[in-house]
Amino acid sequence: MAEGRLDPGETAASARGEPADAVRAQILRAAQARFARYGFNKTTMAEIAADCGMSAANIYRYFDGKGDIAAVGTGRWLAALETELEGLADDAARAPAERLRRLVLAKLEAMAALIRSAPHLDELIDHVCSAREEVVASHRLAVRALYARVIRAGQRAGAFAAGDADWAAAAFDAATCGFFHHSLLRAQAADKVRAEAEAALALLIAGLSAGPYGEAAGDG
């Protein structure tokens, strides 16, 4: 290699001896900036590679394509959100009903802030939801498990009626997931969406308190 120049298979980071994880993180940051500014559809792997100081061919050593980059980046963002939500679910200082309410409103605020921060993010979300739906499905299952955890805590405390907590969590998820959709958050004012979510939460939590639900309701 000539002094001061990189081999075609090297990146600026790898030339400095940085590990593959550091290079992947660099690629993710560059791609995130591109997706936010230009949109997922208009961004190319060659552009992301150039932003990272590597060849277009070399970037494929780390990711299969921009769809793979989008899926990994989305998965990491959702994992961080799940960690935040888990803390709310386990907040024993608050009543179970308030914990459920805070879970939904915290996710709503996180999604709304993300949408506001990137005018072209819709393309990426649409791609991940259609081409890498397992990323979104895994997140929904994780959040649904948190709902079930809080519902069981409410049942033990006598705040919620007896019933199938997993069934109730699935119904709770189905009734609230629409509030997180990017097209709704893009089209309507945040205060309006939050007010509608608050109204739905009041009704859902009242139903949990009244019961029965799940198989117990069917027995009646």
Helix content: over 70%
Q: What is the radius of gyration computed over CA atoms, rounded to a whole number of angstroms? A: 22 Å
Ranges where pLDDT stays below 50 over 5 or more residues in a row are 1-17
The beta-strand count equals 0
Q: What is the CATH-assigned architecture of the largest domain?
A: Orthogonal Bundle
Shape: elongated
What is the highest CATH level, the class of the largest domain?
Mainly Alpha
Domain count: the total is: 2
Which sequence of SSEs, written as H and E, runs from N to C?
HHHHHHHHHHH
Q: Specify the structural class.
A: mainly alpha
How far from one another are the termini? Answer: 79 Å
Query: Helical element count?
Result: 11
What percent of residues are in strands?
Answer: under 5%
Output mean pLDDT: 90
Largest sheet: none
Write the CATH fold name of the largest domain.
Tetracycline Repressor, domain 2
CATH superfamily of the largest domain: Tetracycline Repressor, domain 2
Secondary structure layout plus pairing:
Layout: H1 12-15, H2 20-38, H3 45-51, H4 66-89, H5 96-117, H6 121-131, H7 133-157, H8 165-176, H9 182-187, H10 190-210, H11 215-219
Helix pairs in contact: 2-3, 2-4, 4-5, 4-6, 4-7, 5-7, 5-10, 6-7, 7-8, 8-10
Your description of this structure?
This protein has two domains: 12-61, Homeodomain-like (Arc Repressor Mutant, subunit A, Orthogonal Bundle); 70-211, Tetracycline Repressor, domain 2 (Orthogonal Bundle). Helices cover 71% and strands 0% of the residues. The protein has helices at residues 12-15, 20-38, 45-51, 66-89, 96-117, 121-131, 133-157, 165-176, 182-187, 190-210, 215-219. The radius of gyration is 22 Å and the shape is elongated. The N and C termini lie far apart (79 Å).
